[in-house]
Amino acid sequence: MNRREILRLCAGAFATSTAVATPAWSITMQNKTETVRVGVLMNGTASWEMKVIQDLKLDQKHKFKLELKDVSGKDASHVALMAGDVDIVLSDFVWVAALRAAGEDFTSVPHSFAVGGLMVRPDGPIQSIEDLPGKTIGVAGGPVDKSWVILQAYYKSQTGETLADKVDARFGAPPLINELLTEEQIDASLNFWHFNARAKAAGAKELISVKDMMGAMGITDQPPLLAWVFRDETAKKRRKAVKSFLDASFAAKKILLEDDAIWDTLRDKMGAADNDALFTALRDDYRAGIMQEFNDASVEAARASFAIMSEVGGSDLVGDATEMDPGTFWSGFRK
Q1: What is the pTM of this model?
Q2: What is the pLDDT of residues 52-75, one digit of tens each?
Q3: The dihedral sign for the CA sequence 209, 215, 219, 220
Q4: Can you give the residue range of the structural domain that contains 291?
C-alpha cells in the first residue's frame, strides 16, 4: 500500500466515523486533571519513553494523566487519530505534510531525529559507496522507505548517477531483511533503526549513517523524522494539555539520555534481558536519535530534507505536496 492509498484509507475512515466518534479534543476530567490519550505500539520503541513517563509519574508532575491506547501499527494509529479514538500518535512529519497538502488539519512536534544507515557485513563486498553498483540491497518499509530515498539522493549527489538503476533492491519485513544480511543473501541493508541495532549486535557495521548522508547534501542540522501528531483543533482547544504532554515527553528524553540506571527498567521491554551486546546497541542507538531541543533550525532542517524526499520519492511518498507546509510543525511549542 503506497502513501497515496493510505491517505485515502485514513480520509475514508474519518469520513465514516465522524458521526459517532468522540471528538479528539473532548476533555476527560479526573480531579480536574485532563487525560491525554496517546496511541502507541505497546511493543514498539516509543513505549519505552511512555514507560518512563508512567514509572516516574512525569504526567502527574506536568499536571495531566497519560492514557495509552495500544495500536497494531502505523496505519492503525493513523486511523485511530482520524477517528478521534486518540488525541496524539507517533508518526513521521512527511505524512503530516502530505495530509496538510490534501487539506487535513494535522500538525506535529518532533520526537526523534532521522537515524539509521546503510548496514553491511565487515568482510562483505561493500566497503564504500563506490562498491554499490551490481550489488543487492535489502530495504525494509517498501520503495518509498525514507532511508532508501535518502540513500538514492545521496548517491546521485556524489556520483550524478541513479542508484536504483545500478542495484538490485529487495523489499521485505524488517526481521527478514536482517536475516538475509546475516545469511549473505543480500550485500547491504536499510532497516528501521532498532533492527540496525540488532544487526550491529550480530556483527554487522554501519557503512554510512543517514545523518552523514544528509550532511553531505548540505543539511548540517540533523533533521527530525518521527513526530507526535495531533489535530490543529486539539492544539487550539486543549493547548495546555498538549503542551504538558510534550513537556513530559522531553523530560523523559532527558532522563533516557543521561541516566544509565533507567535503562535497566526497560531491558525486558527492549527484548534484551539476557543479551548485553543487544541491550547496549539498542540503548546507544536510541540515544543517538533523542532530540534535546526543538527550534526553528529543526524546522528548517526538516524542510530541506522534505525537499530531497519529495524530489526522489515523488507523489507516492509526499502525496500532492511540492514543499513542506508551514503548519507541519506546531508553532505553539518550542523547546
Answers
A1: 0.88
A2: 999 999 999 999 999 999 999 889
A3: positive
A4: 3-113+223-328
What is d(CA 283, CA 267) in angstroms, rounded to the nearest whole number? Answer: 10
- Look at residues 149, 181, 216 and tell me which one is the last residue of a structural domain: 216
H-run or E-run covering 70: strand 65-70
Residue at 79 is within a domain: yes
- Co-location of 108 and 133 in the same domain: no
Q: Provide the strand spans (E) within 193-233.
A: 205-209, 224-231
Pairing assessment for the beta strands 88-92 and 33-40 based on DSSP bridges: parallel
pLDDT at 19: 36
Reduced to 3 states (helix: H, G, I; strand: E, B; else coil), residue 214 is helix
What is the domain count for the chain? 2
The enclosing H or E element of 110 equals strand 106-113
Integer CA distances (angstroms), 295 to 110, 155, 205, 223, 299, in order? 10, 29, 32, 11, 7
Residue 121 and residue 34 in one domain: no
Indicate whether 202 and 140 sit together in one domain. Answer: yes
Q: Is 22 exposed, middle or buried (0-12, 13-18, 19+ CB in 10 A)?
A: exposed
pLDDT band at residue 20 under the 50/70/90 scheme: very low
The answer on 199 and 122 residing in a single domain is yes
* Angle (CA) 182 187 188, round 5°: 85
Residues 138, 172: Cα–Cα separation, whole Å: 7
* pLDDT reported for residue 32: 73
Closest CA to 291 of 154, 95, 90: 90
**Averaged over 281-290, what is the pLDDT?**
96
Smallest Cα–Cα separation from 138: which of 173, 105, 114?
Answer: 173
With respect to residue 333, please indicate whether it lies within any of the assigned structural domains.
Answer: no
